[in-house]
Amino acid sequence: MEKTFVDGLRDVFQSGRSRPLKYRKQQLRALLQLMTERQAEIEEALKQDLNRSSYNSSLFELTPIENDIKLAECEMAAWAAPQTVRKNFNSALDDVYIKPEPLGVVLIIGTWNYPWAMIFQPLIGAIAAGNAAVVKPSELSEHSAKLMKELLPLYLDKEMYKVVTGGVPETQELLKQRFDHIFYTGSSTVGKAVMEAAARHLTPVTLELGGKSPCFIDKNCDIAVACRRITWGKFANCGQTCIAPDYILCEPSIQDRIVEEIQKTLLEFYQMDPKSSPDYCRIINTRHFDRVLSLMNECTVALGGESDRSQCYIAPTVLRDVLPHFKIMQEEIFGPLLPVVTVNGLSEAIQFINARDKPLALYVFSSDKTVIKRMLTETSSGGVTVNDVLMHYTVDSLPFGGVGNSGMGRYHGKHTFDQLSHHRSCLIKSFALESLNDARYPPLTAARLSKAKFFLGHRLCLCDGVCVWAAVATLIALGLLAALVVVLKQTPA
Ligand code: NAD
Predict the structure, then answer these.
(1) Which stretches make up the Aldehyde dehydrogenase domain (predicted)?
(2) Catalytic residue at 74?
(3) Reduced to 3 states, what is the DSSP secondary structure of residue 445?
């Protein structure tokens, strides 16, 4: 059978070149060098794709990538080291550990909203874990995709890491091949197609999907600060952020106040005319522009609402008294529209959230600990930030990922390394003390069975020194006994 593109890449992986930590570090350093040397070109591509300013690109995309590279470089040796685990009596004298090892060839498919981070963050984990990788940036952020294809082979080992560009047909063609892991970021609809394609080869998947992330504002909170933080998180990147607050839930009594505070903040952030603000982005293309605009149809505009198709510009917009059956509440907005839905208190807000798909992120603003506690215990979501938005994403020790319809698997920091490693169970025994194994060998008797049960069922409790020493003493005593039996058997009568 003819070798596929991925088979060729697997051969390179199997040469073992990517396994030594030295090689992985070299590749990570080269990626960091790419980020620093080519920063201006990357920022220019993002400007052309999304009208993103260099400050915003640095804050939202380039700095997190650089931090991830530095973290992986610094921590990789510890992440890749064998981890000893608790033993039972049966394995007390053996080496028992978990060894992270590379999976093989990983396919990384990214989105257009943060085109570099959505590819490079998983790629950093793939390199750190010793894998080969194929990356497929989104065709919609075309300037970034073109630049990535040009730059990556100039810095990384081009036999081990490949860039494939193209749209749906190219991605579908890729998905026919057998990868060892697929890391997909994008919509839930395409996520299902990716998982179906992966199932044909029993390839495991990470699906970083989206959905509607709710934001509950309790009347007992600092509404001005809450609105300032929400306005930042919602309208950054023109609302095209997977964990942007999708809609606000609040009691009717504070709706006017919320609109007022958001208005004040918008004025401060983007001045009178957001269209001419260097900090305000654009919608990625006219297809998404038309989609986002059509979501406004039934709604009452409280703030904004202006648009310009020729520039894919939609003003930061707040919609008031939005009803649950409106079209805008049926799909992820992924644009600069912020609906306010009113509910009668916390219990109704919880019911509202639980009646829908589990979100990627959940936000709650409250000064009342019991409100926060109830939100956290009575709902579910991929991640949650209390009294702010987006910020859980920035804590690299927290696993980032969805639950239910918002995805499966997790990444960031060590979690990316773990996600793209196989955690191999290793038990290394010696040939000594064979007589201890009699308990599991036929002919089985009640005495042997109870001995086997004892050895298999009792753990060495590493936190309790007494317990460990008791186990070791028992094993030594049993070993001596076994040796004595052997010696006596061999002694002529
Ligand atoms: P998308 O699903 O349209 O595209 C993502 C990738 O899938 C692209 O590379 C594209 O080429 C490919 N693709 C598109 N259609 C395909 C098909 N039919 N078959 C095979 N491949 C296909 O998603 P998008 O519009 O680029 O991104 C928006 C979605 O991604 C939103 O739902 C957002 O919430 C989500 N998202 C999630 C995260 C996260 O970390 N969880 C991050 C960013 C975006």
Answers:
(1) 11-422
(2) no
(3) coil
